[in-house]
Write a structure and sequence with these properties.
The longest helix is centred in the N-terminal third of the chain and has 12 residues. This protein is mainly beta. The structure holds fe (ii) ion. The site of fe (ii) ion (FE2) has 8 residues, from strand 20.
Length: 449
């Protein structure tokens, strides 16, 4: 390639989030009569909502900074109710206030709330990792910024973990200035009952973490705050560092004020954890691992593969291994096995990196058989994250359904696909065909009635 063609390819790569089905949709809609192909399960009762960037008036210099838009579909006894898409009506959307002041202080009520949506203690919270949550209603209208009644003193990750035993919601917040990392726990009633700072090497970007029955696992990895990028205002101010050590930290849940035990690992980055659990001598962590990401610039992504870290807390050792898997992102499990030994994981397959989103496959991993089963949507259909919805009276871990949006490029429309999570035939049970596009986004959750 000539230098000019190289430069053009580089520019194309950096702006992938503005084209095709990454581009925003223009209006908020409520659609009541939706076409369904196939048969929806009669025990699917609830709301599926997915969040993602849909830049309205902000300049969207990076895929991660567009204004958050929620896309929801509700289900009742085998029938589909409405589809709605709604902006999270943030101060950022209204251009009110400033996240960062000239003196370096931040206003965490100013945010894009574009990354995830969770429900805990009856509250639905739209999340982005540098700010407070935004509370929303079940009709996807916005209530406003939520700081746990004034108790939250850090940002909140977009990947909190809800313990299936205690009902507690565990989460962290990271920041470009000290304290760089704060751990928080809200009890099952939604009260913030514990917060503490965690010592990390520097201003690392931490997107996800993990819990087990007895431990909290932190990722202190070499994507770090970059002042020059921040001053330029042109991009996300985080980039790969060759100098920053990569570590995994483990904190006991029964002694949350205890020191964190840190373990050095090979340099890498993890956006998303699949799951973690306790074993006899320590903890096991499974995650989608990038050998390197955002080196030189933070506009594009390479491919991530499933890794397992086995941490022996008695001997103080850590082992890591690459597992046989396709390139994955957005890994999920049945939420009922969060932090527990588990058998199944689910993930879309991104052979050419996440920005391509062209390879139309979703996979189910069976750890017991050490085998992936894949469903191929075909060339013109591009799936995103798929989430697990348990069946009524579920007995096995995979008794339930997988739900997710996929973009059908030939029609320039999106559909919500529903699979039987047992994947026996690996064909969708049903497909809700929307007369609109749902832009590629980040994360969603199933919220049963
Ligand atoms: Fe994420």
């Amino acid at each position: 390639m000539t230098q000019n063609a190289d430069r053009l390819a580089g520019e194309q790569r950096k702006t992938f989030h503005k084209r095709g089905n990454f581009a925003p949709v223009e209006s908020e809609q409520t659609l009541d009569s939706l076409q369904v192909a196939g048969e929806l399960p009669a025990d699917l009762n609830g709301l599926y909502v997915r969040n993602g960037p849909n830049p309205a008036i902000n300049p969207s210099s990076h895929w991660f900074v567009g204004d958050g838009m929620l896309h929801g579909i509700n289900f009742n006894q085998g029938k589909v109710g409405w589809y709605r898409n709604r902006y999270v009506h943030t101060k950022m959307l209204r251009r009110e206030g400033k996240y960062l002041s000239d003196d370096g202080s931040v206003d965490r009520t100013v945010c894009v709330a574009n990354t995830n949506i969770v429900r805990h203690a009856g509250k639905m919270l739209a999340l982005v990792e540098n700010a407070f949550p935004m509370e929303v209603n079940s009709d996807l209208s916005t209530v406003g910024s939520y700081d746990f009644n004034g108790k939250l003193n850090s940002a909140m990750t977009a990947h909190p973990k809800i313990c299936p035993t205690t009902g507690d919601m565990l989460f962290f917040g990271y920041h470009f200035a000290a304290p760089y990392l704060t751990y928080n726990r809200s009890n099952a009633a939604g009260e913030l009952v514990f917060s503490r700072d965690i010592d990390v090497t520097g201003p690392t970007m931490i997107h996800d973490f993990a819990i087990t029955e007895n431990h909290v696992i932190f990722l202190d990895l070499p994507v770090v705050f970059d002042m020059a990028l921040a001053m330029s205002g042109e991009s996300l101010p985080y980039i790969w560092s060759d100098d920053y050590p990569a570590r995994i930290g483990v904190l006991p849940r029964n002694d949350e004020a205890a020191p964190v035990c840190w373990f050095d690992i090979d340099p890498c980055y993890v956006f998303h954890v699949m799951n973690a659990f306790d074993d006899a001598d320590g903890v096991v962590l499974d995650a989608a691992r990038y050998p390197k990401v955002w080196q030189g610039d933070n506009a594009s992504f390479t491919s991530a593969y499933l890794y397992r870290w086995e941490i022996d807390l008695i001997r103080g050792t850590i082992k890591e291994k690459l597992l046989e898997s396709p390139a994955i992102e957005f890994p999920r499990t049945n939420e009922g096995v969060q932090g527990r030994p588990y058998r199944y994981g689910y993930a879309p397959i991104f052979d050419d990196g996440i920005e391509s989103q062209q390879v139309g496959r979703v996979g189910k991993l069976d750890w017991q058989k050490n085998e992936w089963q894949l469903f191929d949507f075909g060339e013109d259909v591009a799936p995103g994250e798929f989430v697990f919805a348990p069946a009524a009276n579920a007995k096995e871990e995979d008794d339930g359904y997988l739900l997710g949006f996929a973009y059908r490029s030939a029609h320039e429309r999106s559909s919500l696909y529903v699979f039987d999570a047992r994947f026996n035939q690996a064909t969708p049970l049903a497909r809700v065909d929307l007369p609109v596009r749902v832009p590629f986004g980040f994360h969603g959750n199933w919220m049963p009635n």
